[in-house]
Design a protein that fits this description.
This protein is α+β, with helices and mostly antiparallel strands and 360 residues long. The protein is 40% helix and 23% strand. It is built from eleven helices and 15 strands. The strands form five sheets. A seven-stranded antiparallel sheet has the order 4-3-2-1-7-6-5, with helices on one face. Strands 8-9 form a two-stranded antiparallel sheet. Helix 9 runs antiparallel to helix 10. The longest helix has 26 residues. The two termini are 44 Å apart.
C-alpha cells in the first residue's frame, strides 16, 4: 500500500443500530478512517481486522475479527449519503493491507515471484490472485461484482471496458434467489383504514426484479380497498417488470432466471445459451446455468458448468463455493482436494470407521 493510500482521511457521522434495527441516541457520533485505523466514536479498529462490510442505503454492517478468532458484527447508520463511500474506502484499504502482508510473507519464504494481484477497475481494491491463472474476467469481493479485464485475454480495449465496467457493476447475486441478476431496492408498503383506526406497514428489501413480482402483485391487491397505498404499489409493480434494463447480450437474463426458478430448465438453458452465443465470456451466466442444473439434481453437469465459470473468472468465489459442494456430493476426492488447496480451504479430518456424516 502506498503512502497516499495509507494517509487517506475520510470523516463521517453515524449512529449505532440496535438489535431491532433502530438508531440509538439523539445525537450522531463521529467516525473517521485515519491511515490504517477506523475510528468509531471512542472505538478504534485496525482496518486489516475488518473481515467484511455490507452497505444498504445508509446502513453499514462491519464484521470484525477478534483475538479469539471469533467475529463481532457492528451495525451503523451513516449520515449524509456516505455509507457507500465508507464501504468502498474500507475495501480499498484493507485489500491493499492484506495484499502487502501476503507479498511480504511470500518474500520471507523466497516465493515472492508467485505473488500476483490486479486492481479492481471499479473501486480500485487490490485483488490478490496468487495461485490463480489470469482469466478474461475478475471478481471483486468488495464490489461483489464480476468485471471484464482490458487485455489480450478478454480481447477488450480500455475504452470498451470502461463502459462495460459501469454495466457489470450492477450485476450481482440476488439476496433472495441467489441468481446473477440486477438486484435493487424495493419498497413494500401497505396502508389500512378500519373505522377510526388506521396505519401502515413499510419495509425495504433488496432483490432482483423477478423475485419482487409476487410481492408487488400482493401489495397491489392488498392496497386496493384503501387506495392510499396504490401509488406505491403501482410504482413497485412497474419496477419489478422493467427492472434495470439490460441491453445487448444480457437483455434476456431476467427472463431466463425466471424460467430457471420456475423449473423450466430446458427453456432457461436455451435462453442462457443464446446469451453465451453473443457473449461467450460470462462467468455469472454460467453460474446461473449451474444453479439451475443443481436445482434439478444434475450435479455432474452443474460441476462442469461451474468449472467453465471459473475459466472465465478465476477467483469467482460463489462459483468456487458451489463447486466444492458438487465435488463433495459427487465423491470426486481428487478435484475436491485440488480446489480446497487452491482456495486455502482447510481439509477436514476423515471420519472414523462407522461414523455417519450428517447431511441435510
Amino acid at each position: 500500500m502506498d503512502e497516499n493510500t495509507a494517509a487517506e482521511l475520510f470523516e463521517f457521522k453515524f449512529k449505532w443500530i440496535d438489535e431491532d434495527g433502530d438508531e440509538q441516541g439523539f445525537f450522531s457520533k463521529r467516525g473517521a478512517i485515519e491511515g490504517e485505523t477506523l475510528r468509531l466514536d471512542e472505538t478504534e479498529i485496525p482496518i486489516s481486522g475488518i473481515a467484511d462490510t455490507v452497505s444498504r442505503e445508509n446502513r453499514v454492517v462491519l464484521s470484525v475479527a477478534m483475538a479469539d478468532e471469533t467475529f463481532t458484527h457492528l451495525f451503523l447508520a451513516v449520515k449524509g449519503n456516505k455509507a457507500k463511500g465508507l464501504e468502498r474506502r474500507l475495501g480499498r484499504l484493507r485489500s491493499a493491507i492484506w495484499a502487502k502482508n501476503h507479498r511480504e510473507e511470500l518474500a520471507s519464504q523466497g516465493r515472492v515471484d508467485e505473488f500476483l494481484s490486479v486492481g479492481c477497475p471499479s473501486c480500485s481494491a487490490t485483488l490478490d490472485l496468487t495461485g490463480f491463472e489470469l482469466t478474461p474476467q475478475v471478481y471483486c469481493r468488495f464490489c461483489d461484482a464480476i468485471y471484464t479485464r482490458h487485455d489480450e485475454l478478454s480481447g477488450k480495449s480500455l475504452s470498451e471496458t470502461k463502459e462495460l465496467t459501469k454495466k457489470e457493476g450492477r450485476l450481482k447475486l440476488c439476496d433472495e434467489c441467489g441468481m446473477y441478476s440486477t438486484p435493487q431496492r424495493f419498497t413494500i408498503f401497505y396502508f389500512y383504514f378500519l373505522l377510526v383506526v388506521y396505519g401502515w406497514q413499510y419495509r425495504q428489501t433488496w432483490r432482483c426484479p423477478a423475485c419482487m413480482r409476487k410481492d408487488a402483485w400482493l401489495m397491489m391487491l392488498g392496497n386496493l380497498p384503501f387506495l392510499l397505498g396504490i401509488p406505491v404499489a403501482i410504482t413497485q409493480l412497474i419496477r419489478s417488470y422493467r427492472g434495470v434494463e439490460l441491453h445487448g447480450a444480457l437483455a434476456k437474463l431476467d427472463g431466463a432466471n425466471i424460467k430457471a426458478r420456475s423449473g423450466k430448465l430446458q427453456a432457461a438453458v436455451s435462453d442462457y445459451q443464446k446469451i453465451l452465443e453473443k457473449q461467450p465470456v460470462a462467468a455469472g451466466v454460467k453460474f446461473n446455468i449451474a444453479s439451475a442444473l443443481l436445482h434439478d439434481s444434475q450435479i455432474p453437469k452443474a460441476a462442469q458448468m461451474l468449472e467453465y465459470s471459473l475459466k472465465d473468472c478465476c477467483n469467482y468465489e460463489p462459483a468456487a463455493g458451489m463447486l466444492l459442494q458438487c465435488y463433495e456430493q459427487n465423491g470426486d476426492e481428487a478435484k475436491l482436494a485440488d480446489l480446497k488447496k487452491q482456495w486455502g480451504v482447510e481439509q477436514q479430518a476423515p471420519s472414523e470407521p462407522g461414523e455417519e456424516i450428517a447431511t441435510e
